[in-house]
Specification:
The structure holds two protein chains of two kinds. Chain A is mainly β. Chain A has no helices and eleven strands. In chain A, the strands form two sheets. In chain A, strands 2, 4, 5, 6, 9, 10 and 11 form a seven-stranded mixed beta sheet that branches. A four-stranded antiparallel beta sheet of chain A has the order 1-3-8-7, with no helix packed on it. By secondary structure, chain B is mostly beta strands. Chain B has no helices and eleven strands. In chain B, strands 2, 4, 5, 9, 10 and 11 form a six-stranded mixed beta sheet that branches. Chain B has a five-stranded antiparallel beta sheet with strand order 1-3-8-7-6, with no helix packed on it. In chain B, strand 7 and strand 8 form a beta hairpin. The radius of gyration of chain B is 14 Å and the shape is globular. Chain B starts with a strand and ends with a strand. The model of chain B has no long low-confidence stretch (mean pLDDT 92). At the A-B interface, strand 5, strand 9 and strand 10 of A face strand 4, strand 5, strand 9 and strand 10 of B.
């Protein structure tokens, strides 16, 4: 199974600022994704991180707010821009294994004040 | 109708009980089915993964898929207090354009009492 790490594990940020979250996998994965999990809720897909090209965003999420990069097969970043308290969530990255099963990182717990 | 329906519980059982967790779905394009366990303040941990109808067993866990009824289940035998967590079902459509992205149920909070 893929081992996925994220940095930072948590952060408290002020309204209007931006935070970049890093995701590193220990082996090459085909697909990488970014999810959001709001308090007490399930996971919602933000976007698919595509290597070397623009990410594919789900309805309700836009590149200006959540720019994503994936410069190689094992690394991706998600930036949460111009943050508001409504962005307080857990942000999770995932990667697919050889049978397209998905493994998740430990998450980044973001609080916006 | 949501694409994936899962009873959020909470579900409380005594240690040693058999636990049954269930999800229904409406999108017949879903072909890959996963169950995750998520402890508080942790990322989801993949428990079971299957893509065919029938049963798949791994230790105390059995995943069951019935594609004709659009219904999946996770059974936990001899439940332990360490099984106390939120269990999430998830599924994906492997056809072109969907990119294997997962659609999750809301999760069921399980407590196993010693």
């Amino acid at each position: 199974s893929a081992v996925i790490s994220q940095k930072p594990s948590r952060d408290i940020c002020q309204r209007g600022t931006s935070l970049t979250i890093q995701c590193q996998v220990d082996s090459q994965v085909t697909m990488m994704f970014w999810y959001r999990q709001q308090p007490g809720q399930s996971l919602t897909l933000i976007a698919t991180a595509n290597q070397g090209s623009e990410a594919t965003y789900e309805s309700g999420f836009v590149i200006d707010k959540f720019p994503i990069s994936r410069p190689n097969l094992t690394f991706s970043t998600l930036t949460v821009s111009n943050m508001s308290p409504e962005d307080s969530s857990i942000y999770l990255c995932s990667g697919t294994g050889p049978s397209y099963e998905q493994y998740f990182g430990p998450g980044t717990r973001l609080t916006v004040t | 109708q949501k694409e994936v329906e899962q009873d959020p519980g909470p579900l409380s059982v005594p240690e040693g009980a058999i636990v049954s967790l269930n999800c229904t779905y409406s999108n017949s394009a879903f072909q890959y089915f996963m169950w995750y366990r998520q402890y508080s303040r942790k990322g989801p941990e993949l428990l079971m993964y299957t893509y065919s109808s029938g049963n798949k067993e791994d230790g105390r866990f059995t995943a069951q898929v019935d594609k004709s009824s659009k219904y999946i289940s996770l059974f936990i035998r001899d439940s332990q207090p360490s099984d106390s967590a939120t269990y999430l079902c998830a599924m994906s459509d492997p056809s072109g354009g969907s990119n294997y992205k997962l659609t999750f149920g809301k999760g069921t909070l399980l407590t196993v009492n010693p």
